[in-house]
Amino acid sequence: MRIAMLSYRSKPHCGGQGVYLRHLSRELVALGHEVEVFSGQPYPELDDGVVLTKVPSLDLYREPDPFRIPKPREFRDLIDVEEFATMCVAGFPEPKTFSRRVSRILKERAGDFDIAHDNQILGTGLLDIEGYGLPLITTIHHPITFDRRIDLAQAKTPWRKLTLRRWYGFLRMQAKVARRARLVLTPSEASKRDIAIDFGVDPERMRVILLGVDDMFVPPTKPRVAGRIMAMASADAPMKGISTLLEAFAKLRTERDVELVLVTKPAPGGRTEKLIERLGISDAVSFRHGLTDAELVELMGSAEVACVPSLYEGFSLPTAELMACATPLVVSRAGAIPEVVGADGECADLVTPGDVDELRTALAGLLDDPERRARMGAAGRRRVEAKFSWRAVAEQVAAAYADTIADYNQREADRRADR
Q1: Most exposed residue of 172, 209, 217, 285, measured as fewest CB within 10 angstroms of its CB?
Q2: Residue of 329, 335, 391 lying closest to 31 (CA atoms)
Q3: 315 shares a domain with 282
Q4: Are 248 and 315 in a shared domain?
Q5: pLDDT tens-place string over residues 285-336
Q6: What strand order describes the sheet that includes 184-186?
Q7: Alpha helices in 268-332, H assignment, sequence order
Q8: Is there a single domain that holds both residue 375 and residue 403?
């Protein structure tokens, strides 16, 4: 099959959507399919055989100057004007504006492909694509309504609440597009349930396909660092629960010699840095970012215990990757995380999201029990080997493509016959 994969921001370090795009596209090519990725900035890292077509935006959120003001010569058309104007009134324009840009491209190139695959853009421009004779399938990792609820609950001022409501205004559009999708792929039963509730998508038009873990994630060959706890999360996103982990760690720090490594780049002067300073743990907390794949795997394998304190996850790839590294885990009983680790406690200790004392107790218990850590790590590794393969993901996604193409062709034939 000839596949157009669509993603408005796709660099792997920006989150799970970029990881999904990279590994799925690679494995689809390995299965003999042709894949062309259409992406806005930041552009993806792709493997040999996968074609990249850049769909440039104004790149308003790029580092080191997010929320920048473009120069007049940067504006190319009215889509650019809409993108900048939406940002100026505190909205997030990229899903809509990217969908309009990529729709314009595919109008001219629809005949080059058998199917288009939306990676959670859910912009209104995508609604035109099937009119060009190209069936469309979409992946929704989780509904961003959860991010919105958690951010609003933690907002301290009326002004902050107002700007957050403006920022998340794109969700009305995403729900509308999701309800009209021919088929929705999602990585967990938890996400399927929440997409049905929050976006109103018919569960019969959704298919759960678990995500995979890359083969580079392996158990360490060096001894783990005594007392090292690590977590991978966006430090200043409330949904990731880092504040809960920091408070639990601060209590542990009074009892024992431990260190916390956070794989993230916190906002300078943001809530995470302020909390670390208030808790008096600056000497025991470090941040890592910009790591190579090899450096990330080495770091995952260096921790005695890892923590995933999220308040919600649609899947949580870092959880599965840490399991592949045989790293013992303490995780929140939130969203799809119990589906990833299993509910029996063999691969991870599950705790109540946001409960500082329960998290501290679980971390202390694992740090004090090296035999249980070894058993837990081995069990996590076995679970990954049995359940999380990108090749299996690609095979299931390709089957979904074939079903979608057949459904589209049949409906088109029926429509022509009714004329």
Answers
A1: 172
A2: 391
A3: yes
A4: yes
A5: 999 988 888 999 999 999 999 999 999 999 999 999 999 999 999 999 999 9
A6: 51-54, 34-39, 2-7, 115-119, 136-139, 184-186, 206-208
A7: 271-279, 293-302, 317-324
A8: no
Confidence of residue 201 (pLDDT cuts 50, 70, 90): very high
Determine the average pLDDT of the residues in 229-243: 84
Say whether 261 sits in a helix, a strand or coil. strand
Phi, psi of 12 (to 5 degrees): -55, -35
- The verdict on 23 and 150 lying in the same domain is yes
Distance separating alpha carbons of residues 36 and 46, to the nearest angstrom: 10
> At residue 50, does pLDDT exceed 60?
yes
Inside any domain, residue 219 = no
Average pLDDT over residues 12-25: 82
- Number of domains into which the chain is organized: 2
Would residue 217 count as lying in a domain? no
Helix ranges restricted to H, 200-314 = 242-253, 271-279, 293-302
- On whether both 383 and 245 belong to a single domain, the answer is yes
Q: Is residue 238 part of a domain?
A: yes
Task: Assess contact for 348 and 377: CB atoms under 8 A.
Answer: no
Return the biggest CA–CA distance within the chain.
77
Give the domain range for residue 254.
225-387
Is residue 80 a part of any domain in this protein?
A: yes
